[in-house]
Specification:
With 345 residues, this protein is α/β, with parallel strands linked by helices. It has two domains: 151 residues, Rossmann fold (3-Layer(aba) Sandwich); 114 residues, no CATH class. The protein has eleven helices and eleven strands. The strands form four sheets. The chain has a five-stranded parallel sheet with strand order 2-1-3-5-4, with helices on both faces. Strands 6-7 form a two-stranded antiparallel sheet. α1 packs parallel to α5. The longest helix is centred in the first third of the chain and has 17 residues.
Length: 345
């Protein structure tokens, strides 16, 4: 394994929950002691600023990478992509108990892979993402990482105690910004990357595997969060202009391509999507409740008023989906809305 160890990054949970810290440290120390991987602990990925030392270091890692964190894997992947940390999706066999029970239902549903505009400049390496919320036993994650390490074929550079060493084909690495290495009871030294500024962030992340570049989020958001890049692709341009706790643009997105990783609703936070899961609707509130678009407009109005501006309701940036799509093929959203309209409440 010399020179070929896979890199494992453990994105720590925000806060100081002792059970979560114990799981993170147990995974890291056991992997180091076994010689399976080069491991480092970083602050919560979603809270890292784009110029944080940890983010710069992540961009410099060549080869396959395993990222363990406390978000849905879909959310983690697209947070990485937003920060130009890209790779092909590595397939994890790790599943929660609930997912294992639902396997047969998922197969029967026959969910098609989303067809979006896709990521750009994807290097020839894999990024595997593991959700630390799925299991409390570190051994489950260690077994999966060992399986991934055995199938990895791309040579990786090795992490030293205070930096990275170059390989012939690797880009110039950023020195590992270690504070005080965590030392386990077993004597393993785990590099711990510098803390963040302590700020908890809130901003949307775009899943380009689903995004169709319809620009509805750009039309809807009145706070300057969205823009377009040089390829005329939608992007989150001013993430800190987003209003904390507001997921309104995600409700408007017809492709469920906008993720708020810290939102309490799984479909908005990046949970796996299939069939009814694509729609960010609380089914317990369907009877007599406002539509997703009405909720989004209300959420936006609250933030506009808080900014000292006038509420605009449904008059600005609300897509007239059904009327405008009469000449286009029907999709699952059409079927759902028509089904709701036919109910006699």
């Amino acid at each position: 394994m010399a020179g070929r160890k896979i890199t494992v990054v453990v994105s720590q949970a925000p806060g100081k929950n002792p059970n979560k810290r114990q799981l993170e440290e147990e995974i890291a120390t056991q992997l180091i002691l076994s010689g399976t991987a080069e491991v480092s602990l970083i602050p919560h990925l979603y809270d890292l600023a784009e110029d944080h030392h940890g983010m710069l270091w992540l961009r410099s890692i060549p080869g396959d990478v395993v990222v363990c964190g406390w978000l849905y894997p879909r959310a983690t992947r697209w947070v990485l992509d937003r920060n130009e940390i890209r790779g092909h999706e590595g397939v994890s066999l790790l599943k929660s108990d609930d997912e294992e029970e639902d396997d047969n239902d998922d197969e029967a549903a026959g969910d098609d892979a989303p067809q979006g505009i896709g990521s750009v400049n994807v290097p020839n390496r894999k990024i595997y993402v593991l959700d630390l919320r799925q299991h409390a036993d570190a051994a489950v994650y260690i077994r999966e990482i060992e399986r991934i390490a055995n199938e990895a074929t791309v040579p990786l550079v090795s992490l030293g105690s205070f930096g990275l060493t170059n390989s012939v084909a690797a880009p110039k690495p950023v020195p590992l910004p270690i504070t005080s290495p965590f030392v386990s009871t077993n004597g393993a030294s785990v590099p711990v990357i510098a803390e963040t500024d302590g700020r908890r962030r809130w901003y949307p992340v775009i899943d380009y595997s689903r995004c169709t570049n319809c620009m509805e989020c750009l039309d809807f958001c009145l706070f300057g969060v969205y823009g377009v890049d040089q390829l005329d692709r939608i992007l989150v341009e001013e993430q800190d202009s987003c209003k904390r706790g507001c997921p309104a643009c995600s409700r408007v997105c017809p492709a469920n391509a906008i993720i708020f990783p810290e939102h309490k609703t799984p479909a908005i936070a990046g949970a796996p999507t299939s069939a009814i899961g694509d729609f960010k609707i609380d089914l317990s509130k369907l009877f007599g409740a406002p539509s997703a678009l009405e909720i989004a407009a209300q959420e936006r109005d609250v933030e506009l008023v808080a900014d000292g501006r006038e509420a605009v309701g449904m008059q600005v940036g609300i897509p007239k989906r059904q009327a405008e799509k009469s000449t286009q093929p029907r999709d699952a959203l059409d079927d759902l809305m028509d089904g709701l309209d036919s109910l006699d409440f």
